[in-house]
Amino acid sequence: MNAKDGLKNRPCFYEMALYLAIAKTRQDEFRWEHFIDDLSEICDKFAYQIASKSGSTSQRSSV
Q1: Cα torsion angle, 17, 19, 22, 23, sign
Q2: CB neighbours of 42 closer than 8 A, spacing ≥ 6?
Q3: Could you give the angle at the alpha carbon of 27 between the alpha carbons of 26 and 28, nearest 5°?
Q4: Is this structure's pTM higher than 0.70?
Q5: CB–CB of 39/18 below 8 Å?
Q6: Contact assessment for residue 36 and residue 24, using Cβ atoms and an 8 Å cutoff
Q7: How many Cβ atoms are within 10 Å of 54's Cβ, its own excluded?
Q8: HSE, side-chain direction, 13 A CA sphere, residue 47
Q9: What is the pLDDT of residues 1-31, one digit of tens each?
Q10: How many CB atoms lie under 10 A from the CB of residue 13?
Q11: Nearest by Cα to 11 from 49, 40, 41, 38
């Protein structure tokens, strides 16, 4: 398995965030302001989760 194969199977978090934001915004009347806010919130949550997983891995390897 080369690096490119690993990237193909990796989820695209930005694309997933777009779909989630669209679905969340469509629950009410679609407004761009809500879409942008929802997208920002979802991306922040993804980034936090990725950072926390990376941080816990690096802490373990330094011990």
Answers
A1: negative
A2: 17, 20, 21, 24
A3: 85
A4: no
A5: yes
A6: no
A7: 10
A8: 7
A9: 455 555 565 678 889 999 999 999 998 788 9
A10: 14
A11: 49
